Amino acid sequence: GKAASVDHIREFEALGFDCLTGGNHSLARIEETTEELNRAQSIQIRPANYYENTTYKVPGKGYRIVEKNGKKILVINLLSGTYMK
């Protein structure tokens, strides 16, 4: 299917994943995932270059800072238009 469901996100989180990225279908389940994407500690990030406009607020963040072994790592998700029709 397209995009992770809330159940998928929570399952990956339970397995120990620190971050999930997504592509052009990241918001395909927006009705069911908005609350999860807006949760401060959600491991799911959307493309950072999904832009908001005056009629649509994009849920979630396009980046996440993960701390591992005393070091901070920035994970950013960007979407390209290459090969997109």
Walkthrough of the structure:
The protein has 85 residues and is α+β, with helices and mostly antiparallel strands. Helices cover 21% and strands 14% of the residues. It contains two helices and two strands. The longest helix is centred in the N-terminal third of the chain and has 9 residues, at 6-14.
Shape: globular
Q: What spatial order of strands do you see in the largest sheet?
A: 1-2
Cα distance spanning the termini: 20 Å
Rounded to an integer, what's the Rg over CA atoms? 13 Å
Structural class: alpha+beta
H/E element order:
HHEE
- Fraction of residues in H or I helices: 10-25%
The counted number of beta strands is 2
User: How many strands, what sense, and barrel or not for the largest sheet?
Assistant: 2 strands, antiparallel
**Uncertain regions spanning at least 5 consecutive residues:** none
Provide the residue-averaged pLDDT: 88
Question: Helical stretch count?
Answer: 2
Share in β-strands: 5-15%
